[in-house]
């Protein structure tokens, strides 16, 4: 099938490469000429495991092309996917200006029947607006061309995006047109494998499904973080509690790992956007507001603990923290709404020096904290330990899971680890003579 994908971010580029891999002919559009030029040469501008090879192979085999022009991208396509960003505004609402601009461009360049597929995460009602904008552009040109607008939210996770795309739990298609639904089912058949996995519903229900899914997962995380905080006070171990509750298949083990709150470009933004949608229609979403609030608080748990620890020694001012992990989670260079950033802000505001390492998110962090002289980002994991007073671990990269504890103990001024991801065994660290603070777990007796 012939596809046009407008926007080459995580969702757009991963979808494009994965569609091309199944033999579809895909043309990707991006307004940024440098990104397009690099992609033409197989150079990918985002870090996503496996994406580089997939893009290179499909470009070389002629199934994946890139252009800056919507007209060129749409020329032979039956499906036109909108996969541009919907960044959050200050008030929590979504900025839909990129989506609307693409809708206008599609209307201005449409020559024959198209199925316009909205894959960006957008509030309920956006597809109607997209339909209206395309219609207005066609009217301006005096054209009477048929088109459909479909909602097809994407559920892939950064860091595991290709796997998620090739083996989705489900594909949600929002359309009132049976034939369009069948065409999308055919497009997704090689991925979804069984037809039941493609769930066809109304457009508004599909738009709502995306928010409901992310808000449910965010709720699980805020829930377990709240439980972890209570565990700590009552002397229970949240890891045992997680195993105990997760074994009930109605609850499940996933997304109940406690930590420093959820980050990234999706959960924080989507919870706020659904709160905003609800409030705009006069409904107060009390549970979602609490999920958001708990998350905000959780991002400061580790910095608070570090400050409490150093308070008897005159505070953190003049002390140095070695920091492992900057990305909002492992296997990505994405630092949007990363919990590490809150920790860095809290501690450098209080005068602490931080020397940080991340396997891939160093450059993005340096860029973000340009001018903050108390933060140094280095390129070697163990180099952060030199002259540091303590170590904090914030991202669960594999290479932090089994570190050289004797080297840590020898190099740090005092042998203390603050762990925001519960990566280590409190008993093992106690046996090694390392003080250990984690989330929701008591110190060994
Ligand atoms: C999330 C969803 O998982 C995807 O299904 C969805 O498609 C995507 O948002 C999106 O809307 O585009 P992503 O943001 O890539 O994907 O990352 P997740 O793996 O879901 O993690 C989000 C945050 O929650 C991270 O900060 C992670 O560390 C945190 N988390 C996750 C926890 O604190 N505990 C957990 O048990 C799981």
TrEMBL record:
It comes from the Bacteria. Pathway: Nucleotide-sugar biosynthesis; UDP-alpha-D-glucuronate biosynthesis; UDP-alpha-D-glucuronate from UDP-alpha-D-glucose: step 1/1. Residues 322-426 form the UDP-glucose/GDP-mannose dehydrogenase C-terminal domain. InterPro entries: 6-PGluconate_DH-like_C_sf, NAD(P)-bd_dom_sf, UDP-Glc/GDP-Man, UDP-Glc/GDP-Man_DH_C, UDP-Glc/GDP-Man_DH_C_sf, UDP-Glc/GDP-Man_DH_dimer, UDP-Glc/GDP-Man_DH_N, UDPglc_DH_bac. Keywords: NAD, Oxidoreductase. NAD(+) binds at residues 30, 86, 121, 158, 269, 336. It catalyses: UDP-alpha-D-glucose + 2 NAD(+) + H2O = UDP-alpha-D-glucuronate + 2 NADH + 3 H(+). One of its GO terms (molecular function) is NAD binding. Substrate binds at residues 155-158, 210, 255-259, 263, 329. The active site is at residue 266. One of its GO terms (biological process) is polysaccharide biosynthetic process. The keyword Oxidoreductase applies. Its EC number is 1.1.1.22. It is an enzyme of class 1 (oxidoreductase). Pfam families: UDPG_MGDP_dh, UDPG_MGDP_dh_C, UDPG_MGDP_dh_N. NCBIfam families: NDP-sugDHase. Catalyzes the conversion of UDP-glucose into UDP-glucuronate, one of the precursors of teichuronic acid. Belongs to the UDP-glucose/GDP-mannose dehydrogenase family. This is UDP-glucose 6-dehydrogenase. The lineage of its organism: Bacteria, Pseudomonadati, Thermodesulfobacteriota, Desulfovibrionia, Desulfovibrionales. The gene is rkpK.
């Amino acid at each position: 099938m012939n596809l046009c994908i407008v926007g080459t971010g995580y969702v757009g580029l991963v979808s494009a490469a994965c569609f091309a891999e199944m033999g579809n002919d895909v043309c990707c559009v991006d307004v940024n000429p440098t990104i397009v030029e690099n992609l033409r040469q197989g150079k990918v501008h985002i870090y996503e495991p496996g994406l580089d090879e997939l893009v290179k192979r499909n470009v070389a085999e002629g199934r994946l092309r890139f252009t800056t022009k919507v007209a060129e991208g749409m020329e032979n396509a039956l499906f036109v996917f909108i996969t541009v960003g919907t960044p959050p505004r200050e008030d929590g609402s979504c900025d839909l200006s990129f989506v609307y601009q693409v809708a206008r461009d599609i209307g201005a360049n449409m020559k024959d029947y198209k199925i316009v597929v909205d894959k960006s995460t957008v509030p309920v009602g956006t597809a109607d607006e997209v339909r209206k904008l395309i219609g207005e552009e066609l009217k301006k040109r005096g054209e009477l061309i048929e088109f459909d607008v479909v909602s097809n939210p994407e559920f892939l996770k950064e860091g595991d995006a290709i796997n998620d795309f090739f083996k989705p739990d489900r594909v949600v298609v929002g359309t009132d047109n049976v034939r369009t639904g069948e065409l999308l089912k055919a497009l997704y058949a090689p991925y979804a494998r069984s037809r039941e996995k493609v769930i066809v519903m109304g457009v508004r229900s599909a738009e709502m499904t995306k928010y409901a899914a992310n808000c449910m997962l965010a709720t699980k995380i805020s829930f377990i973080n709240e439980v972890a905080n209570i565990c700590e006070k009552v002397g229970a171990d949240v890891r045992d509690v997680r195993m105990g509750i997760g074994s009930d298949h109605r609850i499940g083990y996933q997304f109940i790992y406690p930590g420093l709150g959820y980050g990234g470009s999706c959960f924080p933004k989507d919870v706020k956007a659904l709160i905003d949608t609800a409030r705009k229609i006069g409904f107060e979403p009390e549970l979602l507001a609490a999920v958001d609030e708990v998350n905000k608080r959780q991002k400061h748990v580790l910095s608070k603990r570090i400050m409490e620890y150093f308070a008897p020694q005159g505070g953190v001012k003049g002390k140095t923290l070695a920091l492992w992990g900057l990305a909002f989670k492992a296997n990505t260079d994405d630092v949007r709404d990363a919990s590490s950033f809150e920790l860095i802000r809290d501690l450098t505001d209080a005068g602490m020096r931080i020397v940080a390492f991340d396997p891939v998110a160093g450059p993005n962090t340096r860029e973000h904290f340009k001018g903050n002289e108390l933060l140094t980002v280095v390129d070697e994991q163990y180099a952060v330990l030199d002259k540091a007073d303590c170590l904090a671990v914030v991202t669960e990269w594999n290479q932090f899971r089994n570190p050289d504890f004797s080297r840590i103990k020898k190099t740090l001024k005092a042998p203390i680890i603050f762990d925001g991801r519960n990566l280590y065994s409190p008993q093992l660290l106690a046996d090694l003579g390392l003080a250990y603070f984690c989330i929701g777990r008591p110190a060994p007796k």
